[in-house]
Amino acid sequence: MKVTWRQLPTVLFEDEVLDKAFSRARKAADRVEDPNRVFRTRKQMTRMVQTAADIIHTMLTETVHSWPSLDQSPQFDVAMIEACVGTDDYRHHLSMLQWGASQVQRIATQNNRKIIRTARIELMHEARREAYGRIGSIMGRVGPSLKWLNESREIMKALPQIDSSLPVIVVCGAPNVGKSAFISALSSGNMEVNHYPFTTKQIHIGHFTQRRLQHQMVDTPGLLDRPMHERNSIELQAIAALEHIGSLVLFLIDRTESCGMSWQDQMNLLEDVERLLPGTELMVVSSKADALKPLPEDWDFVKESEERWRNNGSQGEPKLPLLLDDEGRPTMSALENVGLDALRLEVVRKVKAAEVVDPLVLPEGWHRTR
Ligand SMILES: Nc1nc2c(ncn2[C@@H]2O[C@H](COP(=O)(O)OP(=O)(O)OP(=O)(O)O)[C@@H](O)[C@H]2O)c(=O)[nH]1
Ligand SMILES: [Mg+2]
């Protein structure tokens, strides 16, 4: 399921809800025709009360229903909601709207009964006024929740969109190792740039399609790039969430150390990440291959193989030779576009292998026989 934050309709404020409800109620009353003054007033008053209550009820319940239910949201989304706005508050404010919706209906029923039971016109007006007053005070209690939802909607709208039903490749490593450059170089089409609420750094989300399947790559600046003890609970939560969506973790290391973190510190970080995401396959990739000294032995060979493959229309999934550094780790240059195609195909194979096999779905190329 894709988080639908961006499609959430605006949440009206308390005053706007009341204005809309009361003005529609007035119009509904204006349409009443009855030559008998008592009957006419009774119809007008009951219609005003019922219309106002109906409009508010509809508005509140529609808001509740258009917000994703936490019980049915992917764990990653729930963790994001928890990190950004708090799941308890989320539940509380939506349930306040539900409460408000049922209260206004209850008021309408009670006060319309009063209107119907009397023949005195002034009592009818009084019961209508009383209903409005009570509805107003219910809305006074719902108002803060509407305001909260409005603000949360703005926060959630800015969150990266990750479709947890599709493969997700989590890209991590020390600051400046080249995560963003790598994702951008592997992505076809536009990259989404975003911020998590707990980091001022830019997050890049890239996509590429292979086997007609969209693969998402998620950047993790400020998340998996510092020693564990420096992280706060929100960050830990987001990290835990990554485990639920990640099909594969790519850990980038910068052997040139031009990122500013020593080789040893990067290795310690790698151990941290392995401990934090024990359930997800992790692949170590060394970055900035063009700056490695010496240049990887197979640089020219890989470069030519990839160019040939691209010139032939990038067809199929050949095992292109991986570019390896002098310690045998896969490497690539985002800057010079060398080693990337081979690595992408390798990543796709690993993601495929990590997939939980659904016994009801036959593997590609298999046919059911009758
Ligand atoms: N020589 C070389 N430099 C690279 C390569 N990829 C990235 N860089 C440089 O490394 C620096 C950091 O790159 P980014 O992609 O921003 O690194 P990052 O890991 O996203 O950094 P943060 O988001 O700050 O954690 C930039 O100056 C890049 O130009 C590469 O393949 N070769
Ligand atoms: Mg970055």
Write the layout of secondary structure elements.
Blueprint: H1 14-30, H2 37-66, H3 75-84, H4 87-117, H5 121-157, E1 168-173, H6 179-186, E2 192-194, E3 203-210, E4 213-219, H7 233-245, E5 248-253, H8 263-276, E6 282-286, H9 299-311, H10 340-354
Parallel strand pairs: 1-4, 1-5, 5-6
Antiparallel strand pairs: 2-3, 3-4
Helix pairs in contact: 1-2, 1-5, 2-4, 2-5, 3-7, 4-5
The structure holds guanosine-5'-triphosphate and magnesium ion (MG).
Report on the architecture of this protein:
The protein is an alpha/beta fold. The chain has two domains: 5-157, Four Helix Bundle (Hemerythrin (Met), subunit A), CATH 1.20.120.1190; 168-354, P-loop containing nucleotide triphosphate hydrolases (Rossmann fold), CATH 3.40.50. 51% of the residues lie in helices and 9% in strands. The chain has ten helices and six strands; from the N terminus they run αααααβαβββαβαβαα. The protein has helices at residues 14-30, 37-66, 75-84, 87-117, 121-157, 179-186, 233-245, 263-276, 299-311, 340-354; strands spanning 168-173, 192-194, 203-210, 213-219, 248-253, 282-286. A six-stranded mixed sheet has the order 2-3-4-1-5-6. Helix 1 packs antiparallel against helix 2 (37-66), helix 1 (14-30) packs across helix 5 and helix 4 packs antiparallel against helix 5. It is elongated. Residues 358-370 have low confidence and may be disordered. Magnesium ion binds at residues 179-180, 202, 219, 221.
